[in-house]
């Protein structure tokens, strides 16, 4: 199971709020504004916003830098600049801009929030915690900051403090289900299943149509081998969101434990069809599908799943090896050899000695 919090997103809307309510030019006026050389910070901000909306991050950063040069004591401009530099992964420059913003305006909660985000990116967790705590002190309803602190404390296995911060988040914003989910997760890590169950049920009351909450409750039932109760929660989650990744993955595992491979595969395929699914999740699902096909003796289905993985990651050496071995078992020697040679090449490139030995052994056994 994972924490349901996510670090604050760096968005154009936030940056616009930082820099002030300035209307953007549109259409021909936008192009004319872009072509002109701005004479003051306001014009540079207009240009920066326009470029940001066009996803020209480097151009937008350059524009905000010009604005900051003209108004070096404007904390909001520096905060926006810090956001843009973060999107460019220029963390050192982003920290410089954001720290200056916080020194110019010690009440700029958004700058502290952004600073915490950057410190997390460079794995400087002590400074990240300090920045997020400052953001909380300035904005007691800053749910992103609470959850970010909780996440960092959980990563450090400081469960008592993580529990404390999540309870503070719930007290500050009682209707935010994410905080309940995170608290329940940490309680589970501590072995307090009853406490976790109580918290998840509280979340269910304030957010009865939250699929994440239902999956969390289902997970507790599944851990206690209360299969029917777990399936009921997962199905309810899937009624709300038929392509919910975690719900489909969880119910698939229950079906698999029951030997119901058809339903298990169907659930994984549904999850794989979700929009905007990450490559890593898609690969995880296809590997699960392949394993299920192999368990029920349907090698052709597993081969299709492995090929779909290679469509996503053309250098996945373990998949080349598994696919080559399956093809070899079907006497499809030419195809098997091609897959195993790819496995050998990529294992060798990665310096994976064990994988390389397996690929070479499989090649030597080809008839």
TrEMBL record:
Pfam families, per database record: TPR_11, TPR_19, TPR_CcmH_CycH
Residue ranges of domain Cytochrome c-type biogenesis protein H TPR in the record: 35-135
Classification via InterPro entries: TPR-like_helical_dom_sf, TPR_CcmH_CycH, TPR_rpt
Residue ranges of TPR repeats: 41-74, 75-108, 109-142, 143-176, 177-210, 211-244
Signal sequence segment: 1-21
Alphabetical keyword list: Repeat, Signal, TPR repeat
Protein name per Swiss-Prot or TrEMBL: Tetratricopeptide TPR_1 repeat-containing protein
Annotated source species: Pseudanabaena biceps PCC 7429
